[in-house]
Structures
1.
Amino acid sequence: MKYYLIVGEASGDLHASNLMKALKEQDNQAEFRFFGGDLMSAVGGTRVKHYKELAYMGFIPVLLHLRTIFKNMDLCKKDISRWNPDVVILVDYPGFNLTIAKYVKKHTSIPVYYYISPKIWAWKEHRIKNIKRDVDELFSILPFEVPFFEKHQYPIHYVGNPCVDAVDTFKKGNVESFEAFVSGNGLESKPLVALLAGSRKQEIKDNLPLMLEAAKDFVDDYQLVLAGAPSMDIKSYQPFMREDVPVKVVFGQTYQLLAHAKAALVTSGTATLETSLFRVPQVVCYYVAMGKLVSWLRSKLLKVKYISLVNLVADREVVRELVADSMTVSNVRTELDALLHDEDYRSRMLAEYDRIIHILGPSGASQQAASKMVGLLRMKKR
């Protein structure tokens, strides 16, 4: 069968490439055409556009590139119609993908599948109407999405979480000792505190200075190690480094770092879930300007109580979220002290991590998604 996939960022490229591998296992006649990245290209098929030509983040960049965005949308629509695949598989990236879904549903008979659903449970809940109208099957990687969509009379498929797959694969193949890790990266033998300050320049600019200031009181007994984001280089971090707060940056070794860390300061995102899967006690740190205003707007606009995936999956506060006006040096310092030295606090958090791991279920998200997709498509062809 012919599969047309659309992703708009690096994480989508990763998850879609794993899905493509699993689809090839289920369907040895699989052909791929896609808007995607290098990882998808490595699996095979024809790349129409690289996701880097689509990924404009923020209001102003989107406005400045509207002409390019519309041009890419038009290309995508025409290319789908011309190639006439057996299915269009959308991966996250709702602003672009829901527009494509609307076109495909209105102008063709091609089924539309959505893998990694739009996070409409957080905000823009009105998009449920578009999804129910334009998306034939939705495949979720977050278990709490199932009751949310069922509430809207739209059943979905929970297939497991790709983070579980990635961490399981790493743990099975990684036998590096703490001594080997610190020696290989020129580190000391002191226990590690991991800093995961985000993947975008603005996140790093906002969060890293506060993280370093909060952690400086602990550097006599612990060493700070910063996980370098894939899209950054050392020059991206140098403006925020301080001579009085020693910190080492390591690139391409986030899982290795988490495997050996005593505690972690984590900017919210998938990293919070990955940190919990490594059973590292953490605090979520997310600074934004005009914190009091943002906190007020959050209470009015967001439909969820938490911003971290850890707490959302658990449906309770497992890790402390220091966001907007609560993201202060004092609060981070107090929380880090508890994570490092309060054994009862650490134990309670680790027990909740075990519950989260049970809720997420076993590894094999890509395989489960591919199996369901191919099964549904074959039933349709009968």
2.
Amino acid sequence: MTDQVPPQTLGWIGIGRMGEVLATRLLDRGCDLTVYNRTSAKAGPLVDRGARAVDRPVDLADRDIVITMVAGSKDFEEVMTGPDGLLANPSRAPGLVVDASTVSMAVSSEIREQAALRGVTLLAAPVSGNPKAARAGMLSVAVSGPRDAYERALPYLRMLGRSVSYVGEGEAARLVKICHNLILGVVAQILAETTVLAESGGVARADYLAFINDSVLGSTFTRYKTPALVNLDYTPTFTNHLLRKDLELGLDAARQRNVPMPLTALTDQIVVSLIGAGYGEQDFASLLELVARGANLDLIPDPRFVPDGLGSPEQPTAER
């Protein structure tokens, strides 16, 4: 670690696909890290890299800063305020908790209040990107909460990705992330629709998407989703169940604020249909399948190599 980074002890809760990648980034930069995961075996690779593992979230109460990355609101409540939660020790608690999960603003606000009663500050710090983007150092982080706590956590947040944006007090970052994921769902749907339309007219998916990616409409997102759409590889980076959860969070926030969101509502129903068709645990790039079914188009995997924009190597040469 550099001289500019305060020597804080860190805890990490949640070693899923994204959590493992980000915790590894901290370890690779020399951080003193102790980890917890409900399935303890998942901590093995991090322990091999120098982390310590504990059996309960409360066992991280002696850490200076604890970062949480769990699947949803109920999981966040459990690891924070459950019987073995981080706040369960009456005599000790970390000074700062940074939650990188996507959870509801209501749950986050409630836990923020309970943490404050214990002298614990909560920062909301949801991230944008998938595990592959995280490995490439291309995540973005939106952060809200007390400004002094943000400054304290900033050196470590910068280790997680390429940009960190402070967006205000309280739950502002939760709303920013929800809005971000609404765009994600709507863009994925229109990308699926137009890809099927182009293919129905005889244009190969790879060729159509190469044009989009090199146009003013191309983005990090369209580029790193291109291999899945071309090769029909729906290995999950972000499942349809998780996308639906975030769409519902966004629609709930919109109802509370009387904001009309017809495109989001329609996309939510499409994702519900996709889950009903058996794609719930597949990556949300599988929206392509539902559009193709409606068009009576049989999709065939295109085996050609296409870049994902995340620094993947060039197409490997054939074995000799």
3.
Amino acid sequence: MIYLLEDAINGILMGSIYGLAALGLTLIFGVLKVINFAHGSLLMVGMYAAYWAVLLTGAHPYLALVIVLPLMFAFGYLLQAVVIQPIFKAEREVREPITVIIVTTGVWYILDNLGLLVFGPQYRNIQDNPLRGKMIEAGEMLISVPKLWGFCAALVTAALVWLFLQKTRMGRAVRATSLDRDAASLQGINPYRIYNIAFGLGTAVAGVAGVALVPFYNVFPTVGVLFDIKCFIIVVLGGLGSIGGALLGGMIIGVIESVGPQFMTATWTEAIVYGLFLGFLFLRPSGLFGVKYDW
């Protein structure tokens, strides 16, 4: 029984990091109303940025956040402004332009192949890492310290994003644009600037997830594909556009992946995750916290 509790706790911790990664995806969807298929690749960029920041500066892995956070925000802002925004302007009469999905798919392949070209296929990790393998003993249970820090980062990031959206003038502009782009523009809000900020914020959140993963997870060019799939499942479970739903959905997936192998093979565990995903699509497509309005 104690081992099941240990697996459940570590599953919740890992699942919160999944939820943190999915939070950036659901934030972008909530405002732009399009699915960003390049989100996993943006997470990969964040992981490489954290890896090289630690390697070149010798700083503590979590201090890399000081470099990664503004860097990822700027990268997402420029990606939206230069690559995606022209499509929104060209199809301004379309609320959810399908062309954007095609473009983000192209960005996904470009970033993954650039990563392969520049860094090679090798799996990289931080050698002088004070956190790798570190555990906290709680009775007979062992709790992963890096995952515990990732859990804290997920909660703090989700709280800050919620406060930004609810309590700041810019956050209210973001919510107004997400509800009705045309009505927001009549109030003097530039929707394209808001799109840039929202995309930059979602990319920065992916960067936070990358920093949380680097202390215990290998970095390689296609790492984003693994998390991309999980992020899509999580936002469907939690509800597209829901901050709390992203975290809860991630924890559900984390517990299934951690506890499931105690009773069945890993293959069946994955089957349960995808079965849950399909079940929500059929029975409750809005997710656990999905509502008529996005925020």
